[in-house]
Design a protein that fits this description.
The chain is mostly helical and 192 residues long. The protein is built from ten helices and no strands. Helix 6 packs across helix 7.
Length: 192
């Protein structure tokens, strides 16, 4: 029944009901564009989908399909660097976007560097959120990306970027966030 419906008319509850992430690769590939469209408009975590399973499944997809999913992950990351707060549904925060990049087997370190080198108001705000997630949340990431992100957190460029963004902050809210994040990063990332 659901396969006969036009793809764009399929709802998130319907994809939950058919357990989209547990379907075979052909069926998942069919529903995947709609699943991603819904994930990009659904802000809350969607616990009914094990999106981390993409990491094991994507390598079996055709190269053009894999490239399409990777382009989507990169587009999410690019928008995140330029928009704060970001309206990307499930992927609106830095940890979720990093997980998506990791599931697509994309180079996390190269993309993390953009948080310190991209000269937008959004990038350091997301960097501040990432610092907060890493140092105040028990499990901020899927295990695949956690080790990479934790190792990267010792990068002195993080502190420098947070500090310079604080001095050029355009609002009291941004200044408070960046200052708090810089203090947290200084205590947690540069300690013994």
């Amino acid at each position: 029944y659901i396969r006969a419906a036009p793809l764009r008319s399929i709802s998130l509850p319907q994809l939950v009901a058919v357990h989209a992430m547990t379907l075979g690769d052909d069926a998942l590939r069919y529903f995947f564009p709609r699943l991603m469209e819904l994930m990009l408009t659904t802000r809350a975590p969607v616990f009914d989908f094990r999106l981390a399973d993409l990491a094991d499944r994507l390598p079996r997809w055709r190269p053009d399909e894999l490239a399409g999913v990777r382009r989507l992950a990169d587009a999410v990351w690019e928008q995140l660097l330029h928009e704060y707060p970001c309206e990307l549904g499930y992927f609106s925060d830095c940890p979720s976007a990093l997980d998506f990049l990791a599931w697509c087997d994309l180079d996390l370190l190269a993309r993390l560097e953009f948080l310190t080198t991209t000269r937008t108001e959004a990038a350091p705000r997301h960097l501040a959120d990432l610092v907060d997630a890493v140092f105040t949340t028990r499990d901020p990431f899927e295990s695949a990306s956690k080790t990479t992100v934790l190792g990267w957190m010792r990068n002195p460029a993080i502190g420098e970027r947070l500090q310079s963004a604080f001095f050029s902050a355009d609002s009291d809210e941004a200044a408070r966030q960046l200052s708090s994040s810089h203090e947290l990063w200084t205590v947690c990332a540069t300690g013994p």
